[in-house]
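call fold(seq) -> C-alpha cells
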Amino acid sequence: MAGAITAHLSEEASVRPRHINESTPVRIVLITIALAFLTLVVILPLVTVFAEGFKKGWDVYTASLRDPDAVSALKLTLMVSLIAVPLNTIFGILAAWAITKFKFRGRNVLITLIDLPFAVSPVISGLIFVLLFGAQGFLGPWLDERGIQIIFALPGIVLATIFVTFPFIARELIPLMETQGVQEEEAAVVLGARGLKLFWYVTLPNIKWGLLYGVILCNARAMGEFGAVSVVSGHIRGETNTLPLHIEILYNEYQFSASFAVSSLLVMLALLTLAVKKFVEWRGSIWQSKLN
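ret:
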C-alpha cells in the first residue's frame, strides 16, 4: 500500500506544472522582479502624489481642497458618477439578460457594440458627441432652437461618461450568467414566477456579487475619466471641470502643490474603491464556496 501511495505521489510530481518545481533562487528572482515593477509603476507614483501634495504644508494642502473650483469639480465628479453608474447598471443587466437568456438575430452584433468603447479612443468618443450635439453638429441647430445645451454642460459630460463606462457591468455579468445557465429560471417559470419576481428572487441572488463588482469598476472609471470628458466639457472653471480636468488646469498653471493635493483626493477615492472591490471579491468567494 505504501509503495502504491509513493508511486502515485511521484506520478503527480512528474505532471506538476514546471513553475511549481522552480528552484528557490529562481522564485526569489521572479518575485523580486514583480515587486520592483510594482514599486516603480504603482507605489512610487502614489507616494509622490502625497509627498508633493503635502510639500508646502498642511495649510496649503487643505486650502487647495477647500478652493471653490476644487469643491465644484468634486461635486460634479460625484454627480456624474451618480447619474452614469445607475444608468449603466440598468443597461448592463438588461443587455446581459437578453444575451444570455435568449437566442435572437443580431446577438453577436450586440456583443460587439458593447465592446466598442474598449476599441475606440475616449477622445474620439467625445468628438463624436460634439459632432452630434455641438453648435455646428447634426442636432445642434435643433437643440439650440429649443434652448437645450448638451455640449459644454452637464448632459454632455454624463453622455461621454456613460459611453466609455457602459461595457463594464455588462461584460462582468455576461460570462457569469452564461455559466449559470437558465435551469433555475425555467424551474421558477414552471412554478409560476414571472417578470420582476423572477429576476428579483431567482436571478439577482446568483449575480449580486458580480453585479456589485461591475458597478465598482464602472464607478472607478467614471470618476477618473479624462479624454472624452475633456472634449465635451469646455473646461469652464467651477462649472464643467471634473476632478481630472481641474488637476490638469492646476498643473498647467504651475500650481504643482495644489494639483498634487487635488490628485491625492482622487487617489483616496480610488483606494476606497479598491478596498470596496477587495471586500466584494472576498464576500463573493465566501458565497461561491458555500455554493460548492
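The chain is about 80% helix and 0% strand.
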